[in-house]
Specification:
Elements lengths: L2 E3 L8 H4 L9 H4 L7 E4 L2 E4 L7 H23 L7 H9 L5 H35 L12 H14 L5 H26 L4 H25 L5 H10 L7 H20 L1 H7 L3 H6 L4 H23 L5 H13 L4 H24 L7 H22 L3
Antiparallel strand pairs: 1-2, 2-3
């Protein structure tokens, strides 16, 4: 006689003992046994792993991973000074190549490509987190003023006398962090720890930052500073170097890895606030930590690249369309999709114009048709 035996669910006592603050990333893989039906047949038991539901996810990982690999190689090869795959292999294996080729590889192409992957993955996962915790499919990294604060910090650094490229990056990084700090202070002052309060506080801070930026533009030198401010707001990988990538790498890792360590809490924040409290989630503490980590991640990226549009908005939508779910897989796939889209945009940015187009022009060209497609599908009720 066949009968299904349901395995115990490890989350049944969650309401009693509360959700652990840190939950290891991909821990769901360790607990897959709780989702496996056990078939008992004449005293013998056998487990049938329910891998059918994960097949679309695994296929999506392989597909997007292959796109990233191809895009990474193409990004290194394509440019004003082309590098062949044979030359890349020779460089990596210590073979003989010209000094110019080696210099272009290590000084220009490799740092730029790595920064493209980091920027796309960071903005993708940040966008996914924002859309889950704010329960808004149109949420992006600018919803609580990170981008506006970074823009203001960069503008102040640009118009300041004697501030170089490093000072602009530092100003943008500090501006993004300070903007979110002011958002937190506003939320705390209102004593209303709700999602809507965070959004409204972000709108207020963004409006103030944009007003100050317009004032700086009005008084800025029209021949140099004004053009620099406008160019920074459009984003670019042209000035990326290995030293810049290494300078933000610790902050990027803290934000990126930290969000995945809190992946379970991020998923719970997408529930109703009363349900979160019932499950034992410390809302203020978890939300503050998640927003701080995502801000650190976004600020570290835009401090080097400038503002980049649409990646944090469209990557989660593409990920959800591919796997038809909203969980840790969505966060991982959003990061991968963001990296793939960013590599494609950067390749076209340097191919269409010898001097390189601002990256936000290409991400907008890619992002707008994607959003129109999702609008049509949403109207048909298919997404």
């Amino acid at each position: 006689m066949l009968r299904w035996i349901k395995q115990p669910d490890p989350s049944l006592d969650t309401a009693e003992r509360g959700i652990p603050f840190f939950y290891p990333p991909f821990a769901f893989l360790r607990h897959m046994r709780y989702n496996k039906p056990t078939v008992e047949l004449e005293g013998d038991t056998m487990q049938e792993p329910m891998l059918q539901n994960r097949k679309p996810v695994i296929r999506s990982y392989w597909l997007v991973g292959a796109c990233i690999a191809v895009g990474f190689i193409a990004s290194i090869c394509i440019g004003n000074y082309p590098i062949s795959i044979r030359e890349i292999i020779s460089i990596l294996t210590g073979g003989e190549v010209s000094a110019l080729t080696r210099k272009v590889f290590f000084t220009l192409r490799l740092p730029r490509t790595c920064m493209g992957v980091m920027a796309g993955a960071g903005l993708g996962v940040a966008g996914s987190v924002y859309q889950m915790i704010f329960r808004n499919p149109l949420a992006s990294p600018d919803i609580i003023g990170v981008s506006s604060g970074a823009n203001l910090g960069a503008a102040i650094a640009i118009v300041s006398v004697g501030i170089g490229v490093g000072g602009i990056a530092l100003g943008a990084f500090a501006g993004g962090l300070l903007a979110v700090a002011f958002v937190m202070l506003l939320v705390q002052a209102t004593r209303a720890n709700t999602t809507a309060t965070y959004v409204l506080a972000g709108i207020v801070i963004s409006a103030v930052a944009k007003s100050v930026i317009m004032l700086l533009k009005y008084y800025a030198d029209s021949e140099s500073n004004l053009a620099a401010i406008e160019y920074w707001t459009m984003g670019s990988f042209a000035g990326v170097t290995a030293s810049k990538v290494l300078s933000i790498l610790p902050f990027w890792l803290i934000g990126f890895v930290g969000l995945f360590l809190l992946h379970r809490q991020v998923g719970l924040l997408s529930l109703n606030e009363e349900e979160c409290r019932t499950l034992g989630v410390r809302l203020y503490r978890v939300r503050l930590t998640v927003l701080t980590l995502s801000t650190l991640l976004v600020a570290s990226i835009v401090s080097i690249t400038g503002l980049i549009s649409f990646i944090g908005l469209i990557a989660p939508h593409i990920a959800r369309m591919m796997i038809k779910r909203e969980n840790t897989d969505t966060m991982v796939l959003s990061a991968m999709v963001g990296a793939a889209v960013m590599l494609v945009a950067d390749i076209f940015a340097r191919s269409l114009y010898a001097g390189g187009l601002p990256i936000s022009i290409l991400t907008t060209i890619i992002g707008v048709p994607v959003l129109v497609y999702f609008m049509c599908k949403r109207k048909e009720g298919k997404v």
